[in-house]
Write a structure and sequence with these properties.
Helix content: over 70%
Number of helices: 9
Family: Belongs to the binding-protein-dependent transport system permease family. HisMQ subfamily.
Structural class: mainly alpha
Protein name: Polar amino acid transport system permease protein
Membrane topology: Multi-pass membrane protein
Order of helices and strands: HHHHHHHHH
Pfam family, one: BPD_transp_1
Shape: flat
Subcellular location: Cell inner membrane; Cell membrane
Strand content: under 5%
């Protein structure tokens, strides 16, 4: 069978797809920053909390890092209504990805916290630094250099992982591609175009994160 590619029918929908790409980034940003808040609390709790608190945090991390994020979102969206809690598809996706991100970021951030050596803090104390000065000039730069690359990679993963939202009818980039290919039956062309858009999104995100890392933390993050 001879197949003739017709990209023009997909290119005509480019503004519609780019609007979906914006929603893709919004999902990734929300999930990342909300997950980072959970991860910071989890990391501090695992590092300095009492034993019961550490146990609860470990249970949370083990559960969410050993079950697929998609399954977790399915649970939120389809099981919670039985308990009287009805979430919109977008809310369920963001909450699910946030809880999943929080578990991974707990371990990433804890890795940064424990990487600060006692000798560095003692040296700062000998130099007469105050608490805020130690945090500003010793602790934060050290933690940033340790975890910046993993955090950057995790954000890129969230950009791509947000495509799970399409399963629940959220019209982010993949969701809109499904709509278009269903209408025009140009599946190959549609998914080729959104693949290029995803590459563009991750490339721009990688460059931005690398520049921010070099400017704010003097971290030479790798681009791809």
């Amino acid at each position: 069978m001879h197949y003739t590619f017709q990209f023009s029918v997909v290119v005509a929908k480019l503004p519609y797809l780019l609007d979906g790409a914006v929603l893709t980034l919004e999902i990734a940003f929300l999930s990342f920053w909300l997950g980072a808040c959970i991860g910071l609390l989890g990391a501090l709790g695992k590092s300095y909390g009492a034993r019961p608190i550490r146990g609860l945090i470990n249970a949370y991390v083990i559960f969410f890092t050993n079950t697929p994020a998609l399954v977790q979102i399915f649970f939120l969206y389809y099981a919670l209504p039985d308990a009287g809690i009805l979430l919109s598809p977008m809310t369920a996706v963001v909450i699910g990805m946030t809880l999943n991100s929080g578990a991974y970021l707990t371990d990433i951030l804890r890795g940064g916290i424990v990487s600060v050596r006692r000798e560095e803090i003692e040296t700062a104390q000998v130099l007469g630094m105050s608490g805020p000065q130690m945090v500003r000039y010793v602790i934060l730069p050290h933690i940033a250099k340790t975890i910046y690359a993993p955090l950057s990679n995790f954000f890129i993963w969230l950009v791509l992982g947000s495509s799970m939202a399409a399963v629940f009818g959220v019209e982010e980039l993949t969701g809109r591609a499904i709509n278009i290919s269903t209408q025009n039956l140009r599946t190959i062309e549609t998914y080729s175009v959104i693949a290029v858009i995803y590459i563009g999104l991750t490339f721009i995100a990688s460059i931005t994160l690398a520049l921010v890392g070099r400017w704010a933390f003097r971290v030479k993050a790798r681009i791809f």
